[in-house]
Amino acid sequence: MADRLFELTTHELHDLLKSKQVSAVEVAQNFIERIDAVDGKVRSFVTTTPELALEQAKAIDEAIAKGEKLGALAGIPGAIKDNMNTRGILTTCSSKILYNYKPVYDATVVQKLGEAGALTVGKTNLDEFAMGSSCENSGFFPTHNPWNLDKVPGGSSGGSAAAVAADECAFSLGSDTGGSIRQPASFCGVVGLKPTYGRVSRYGLIAFASSLDQIGPITKDVTDSALVFNAIAGKDPCDTTSLDIETPDFTKALRDDVKGLKIGVPKEFYGQGTDPDVEKAVKDVINMLAGLGAEYKEISMSSVNYGLPVYYIIAPAECSSNLARFDGVRYGLRSKGSTDTIAMYEKTREEGFGAEVKQRIMIGTYALSAGYYDAYYLKAQKVRTMLRMDFEKAFEEFDVIITPTSPSVAFGIGALADDPYAMKLADVCTIPANLAGIPAISIPCGFKNGLPIGLQIIAKGLDEETLFRVAYTIEQHTQWHKKKPNL
Ligand code: GLN
């Protein structure tokens, strides 16, 4: 087994490290070899950091030798989406405009993983500035789906999801503004958690849309999701939107028990365009839960229909403001040959940003401009409040809402490139939880044509514990999470 350590989960690796059956250096080496063997095909990473991982592993082995207590993530290889700052290590957002940018500080989540003893094996590819659903918008190269290299891994955290599915790391971090953790987790057959807005610090996450962005774990199973979440959650004085509440031990919520659980099944999440095989796989699981003592009811949440249009006003509006800082003065690329400052700003932005990012900056600037603000931005904010209230109402009656994560399985690389609207539909089921600020998790629930199907569980704000309990129960009664792609 020692030669295939990379196949193990975080908690399995932890047990081997703790009982001294393997060393952290052996674990690190094993994953580094795995990356060397498969990343030429999958291309999950923008940057790999093998020396750093080995150095961190040596420190863990020394701590073990001294008899120190081993934390849950100590000696476990993780990967970080390349929109989170890592001190002295390239952080690109998969954008040419951040060419050669090396941050002077670690994002709080990176610092917390370091304190927990996790190893960093690299920085993963994404759609430029996290805008996209396929990783095809990366300014560098597309990532491939480990289950079928001709398909996309989803996005924007496509590299993070593919790296976990391809066993290039035991876990990874993604960020989710409209589905960017859950949709790629679904396409790659792994577990992705978008926490409640404010549970995890965003300090050092390069902002896309600040009222929606949230960092979360991508893992091989639900137990690992709770373990990584334990390590990164909590109040951070550097992020005023992080919540000053206690972080419970989320592993305590991992119980095989759904007796009396009330599940809402809103028909709007199973609307036109949902692949019937995806719908069937999700509904089979809901029926299975009913067999285990849960109750479900089909309901209607009409405001969900406005999720996409509201998101595509609010997210671009916020991004147009957040991305104003990339002007060639402070970070990365500076275009050459301009005679004055304004021309330099313009040329840098023209050369540095890709088409999708430019389009969003333009839409956002338009939606915020005098004369259009009330008609677009303000109206979108009002509809956002309606949507949030609809969820609050639903959670008076139900403990969770269950939906497909995405209406389809992974599509072909290039298949939707000419149809940006179809691409945006890939997020129709995930966007509402971001707008409402509530937690949601995607777990594997079946396959179609050899490609994973994802199921989404949504709970009320701060109730990640119920998400973990339901997801864990499903995992105990199915085998989907144990399947591996053939690489
Ligand atoms: N796919 C969505 C978008 O393009 C969501 C991205 C995200 O969550 N970062 O905006």
Question: Would you mind describing this structure in some detail?
Answer:
With 487 residues, the protein is of the alpha/beta class. The protein has a single domain, classed as Amidase signature (AS) domain (Amidase signature (AS) enzymes). Helices cover 38% and strands 13% of the residues. It has 15 helices and 11 strands. The protein has an 11-stranded mixed beta sheet, sandwiched between helices. Helix 2 packs antiparallel against helix 3 (50-65), helix 5 packs parallel to helix 6 and helix 9 (307-322) crosses helix 12 (373-397). The mean pLDDT is 97. Bound molecules: glutamine (GLN).
How is the topology of this model organized?
Layout: H1 10-18, H2 24-42, E1 45-48, H3 50-65, E2 77-81, H4 108-115, E3 119-124, H5 158-165, E4 171-176, H6 182-188, E5 191-194, E6 214-219, H7 222-232, E7 262-266, H8 276-291, E8 295-299, H9 307-322, H10 341-352, H11 355-368, H12 373-397, E9 400-404, H13 420-425, H14 431-436, E10 440-448, E11 451-459, H15 464-476
The structure holds glutamine (GLN).
